[in-house]
Specification:
This protein has 337 residues and is of the alpha+beta class. It contains 6 helices and 12 strands. Strands 1, 2, 3, 4, 5, 6, 7, 8, 9, 10, 11 and 12 form a 12-stranded mixed beta sheet that branches.
Length: 337
C-alpha cells in the first residue's frame, strides 16, 4: 500500500452491501456472447460428433493446481473531490485468491499451496486515494466510469489479476510439471502455460442442436469433441460429464476451456488428462449443494478464502469510522451497525 496521507473524503451507504445484487461477472461475459463463432471440426467433423472416452494411455496430471478467488463488497461509498465537484460512487471491497495442490487418483487430500488477500477502494474519481482504517487499509484503484456495473467489473478484473499473479509466483517457486485449473472462464488468463478454465454453470447454449445432443449422451468420465469458439475472445472448449445422481440431460456437465493457439496434439492430451482427473474430484451432494460441479478442492478453498476475508461487520464499522473522521459519515453507534 502506498504510504501517503488520505485525501479522499467519502461517505458509506447505510445499507448492508449484501442487499445490492452484485453483478455476476462470469454470467455477464457468457450472456454477452450471444453470437459465438464456432469451429466444430477441430477434433471430429461436426456431422460425426459422439461422446469421447479419454485415451486410457494418457494419465491424469501428476500435479493439478486449482486456483480460485472470492470477493466481497465491504461498503458502498461516495467519494468527494476538491472545489465542490460532484461526489462519485465507489466500492470498498475485499478479495482473496488461493491455490490448492492436488495429486488426482492417489487419494492424497488437496493441500493449500498459496493464498493472498487484497482490499481495495474502486472509484472513477480522479482524487481517489488509499483509505486507511483502524482495521484494514484499502488501496485506491481507478475504475473506468462510475456505473455500478463498471465498479464491480473493476473489482472482478482485480481479483482475476490477483489469481494470475499468485499462480505465476507459485509456479516460479516450485517449478513443477503441473496443470493449472482456474475456476471460471479462461478469459484474461489465456497466456498462462498448461492452464485450463473450468465453468460450472451454463448461461448460453453455444452448440447447435445436433452437437448439443452429444452433451446429453455423455456418460460420467466422458467428454465431447473439442471445438473452437470465438466471442470477444477465442478459446478451445469441450464439455465433460461428472458423476451425478440425476438423469437430467445436463446433470453434472461442466465446460473446460484452453488456449486457442494450442496445437491439436497438445489439446487432445490436455482434454483427456483433465477428463481422467475431474471425476475423482467431483463434489458430493451431502456436502455441497453445487455438487458435483463444485469440485471438492474448490469448495474447501472457497470456504478458507471467505474466512480470510475477515469480519464484514468489523470492516464496515471501521470504514464508517474512517469516514466520520473526515466529516462525511456519522460515527457508528457502539451497539450495532
Amino acid at each position: 500500500m502506498q504510504n501517503h496521507d488520505l485525501t479522499t473524503a467519502f461517505t458509506v451507504d447505510p445499507w448492508d452491501p449484501g442487499y445490492t445484487a452484485a453483478l455476476n461477472a462470469e454470467a455477464l461475459a457468457e450472456l454477452d456472447a450471444t453470437s459465438a463463432q464456432l469451429d466444430l471440426d477441430v477434433e471430429l467433423p461436426a456431422a460425426r460428433w459422439r461422446p469421447v472416452t479419454p485415451d486410457p494411455g494418457i494419465p491424469p496430471p501428476g500435479v493439478l493446481l486449482i486456483a480460485d478467488g472470492v470477493r466481497r463488497i465491504d461498503a458502498r461509498l461516495w467519494t468527494y473531490g476538491a472545489n465542490g465537484e460532484e461526489p462519485r460512487p465507489g466500492l470498498a471491497a475485499s478479495c482473496a485468491a488461493g491455490i490448492v495442490r492436488c495429486t488426482p487418483g492417489d487419494g492424497t487430500p488437496a493441500a493449500l499451496a498459496a493464498v493472498e488477500v487484497s482490499r481495495s477502494v474502486f472509484s472513477a474519481s480522479p482524487h481517489l486515494a488509499d483509505i486507511l482504517t483502524r482495521s484494514a487499509g484499502y488501496r485506491a484503484r481507478r475504475a473506468a466510469d462510475s456505473g455500478m456495473d463498471e465498479l464491480v467489473l473493476a473489482l472482478q478484473r482485480h481479483l482475476t489479476q490477483l489469481e494470475v499473479d499468485l499462480a505465476i509466483r507459485h509456479r516460479a517457486e516450485t517449478d513443477e510439471d503441473d496443470l493449472l485449473l482456474v475456476d471460471g472462464p479462461l478469459r484474461g488468463r489465456t497466456h498462462l502455460p498448461r492452464t485450463a478454465g473450468y465453468i460450472k454453470t451454463h448461461h448460453t447454449a453455444y452448440l447447435p442442436a445436433a452437437q448439443a445432443a452429444t452433451v446429453s449422451d455423455l456418460r460420467p468420465g466422458q467428454r465431447t469433441p473439442i471445438f473452437l469458439m470465438g466471442t470477444s475472445w477465442r478459446r478451445h472448449a469441450w464439455y465433460v460429464r461428472l458423476p451425478a445422481g440425476s438423469d437430467m440431460p445436463w446433470a453434472g456437465v461442466v465446460r473446460c476451456e484452453a488456449n486457442a493457439d494450442l496445437a491439436l496434439d497438445h489439446l487432445l492430451h490436455l482434454a483427456d488428462s483433465l477428463t481422467h482427473a475431474l471425476p475423482s474430484l467431483a463434489g458430493v451432494a451431502y456436502k455441497d449443494p453445487r455438487a458435483p460441479q463444485n469440485l471438492v478442492p474448490i469448495g474447501g478453498l472457497e470456504r478458507l478464502l471467505r474466512h480470510r476475508l475477515g469480519d464484514a461487520r468489523l470492516l464496515y464499522r471501521a470504514l464508517r469510522a474512517a469516514a466520520a473522521r473526515h466529516g462525511r459519515t456519522p460515527e457508528p453507534a457502539s451497539e450495532g451497525i
